[in-house]
Specification:
About 40% of the residues lie in helices and about 15% in strands. With about 280 residues, it is an alpha/beta fold. The protein has a single domain, classed as NADP-dependent oxidoreductase domain (TIM Barrel, Alpha-Beta Barrel), CATH 3.20.20. The strands form 2 sheets. An 8-stranded parallel beta sheet has the order 3-4-5-6-7-8-9-10. Strands 1-2 form a two-stranded antiparallel sheet. The model has no long low-confidence stretch (mean pLDDT about 95).
Length: about 280
């Protein structure tokens, strides 16, 4: 496995195993995306809510890397679901990105009474070949079961918060059993899990950082990762995780850190989305 590796989705498309999360990159979006692409990343994850789709598109063009070699993800926001403006939102995202398709389009949160409608629109966009992959973010098992019951089609990817203090084992197992690739956002717990002594001990054993250990743990669990950083050094370091391996004992030790802890910076409860 290396930085060019990925996970084959149910339609045969390869989801890169690592990408750059663009949440809250702000005025450092262009430089961060360029640093990631220079470090070998080929997946960039943005969203209309992040307000930096235009900057992501600018960076992709500035990179000189052919568009088809870069996997671009964006998402439909909650208000567009509530206002039934999902199609308009998609067109607006394309315009801001300066692209004529996106690789993956996702339902950002499961808005009660709206997310099935939104999913049906994503199915239309997929049939029209406007997007290559469709997925969801922050969907729990009941949300996925409702999509299945009402549309007969499950997402290709479920992007959820996963880190050592919130391992999401039950949801991950359900997704894997139903052919849904899991992708971890905020895999480093917004930095708030990096100081755990258990991680420091494992990191020291391998001559690595706690962040590298966490990301390696994800990959060995078959999970794609999209760590966020604005530091070129850290962006490169986050991708330097392919030449060591955690033992079964180390994997279990990280699993044991779980507390079902919800990151206070994560945005909210997936089962009660009021924002």
């Amino acid at each position: 496995m290396d930085i060019n590796s990925g996970y084959k989705l149910k339609n045969g498309i390869i989801l890169p195993c690592i990408g750059l999360g663009a949440y809250k990159l702000g005025d450092r979006t262009v430089s961060s995306v360029l640093a990631a692409l220079a470090a070998g990343y080929r997946m960039i994850d943005t969203a209309s809510r992040y307000e930096n789709e235009a900057e992501v598109g600018e960076a992709v063009r500035k990179s000189g890397i052919p568009r088809e070699e870069i996997f671009i993800t964006t998402k439909v926001w909650n208000e567009d679901q509530r206002n039934h403006t999902q199609r308009e939102a998609f067109e607006a995202s394309l315009q801001r990105l300066g692209m004529d398709y996106v690789d993956m389009y996702m339902v950002h949160w499961a808005i009660e009474g709206r997310f099935v409608e939104t999913w049906q629109i994503l199915l239309d966009l997929y049939e029209q070949k406007r997007v290559r992959v469709i997925g969801v973010c922050n969907f729990e098992i009941p949300h996925l079961e409702e999509l299945w019951a009402r549309t007969g089609v499950l997402p290709m990817v479920n992007q959820i918060e996963i880190h050592p203090k919130n391992t999401r084992k039950e949801l991950i197992a359900w997704c894997k059993a139903h052919g849904i690739q899991v992708e971890a956002w905020a895999p480093l717990g917004s930095g708030m899990v990096l100081g755990l002594p258990e991680l420091a001990e494992i990191a020291a054993r391998h001559g690595r950082t706690p962040a590298q250990v966490i990301l390696r743990w994800d990959l060995q669990n078959g999970i794609a990762v999209i760590p966020r950083s604005t530091s070129p050094e850290r962006i490169a370091q986050n991708a330097d995780i392919f030449d060591f391996e955690l033992s079964d004992e180390e994997m279990s030790a990280i699993d044991a850190l779980n507390e079902n802890w919800i990151n206070p910076l994560s945005g909210g409860d997936p089962n009660n989305v009021t924002f």
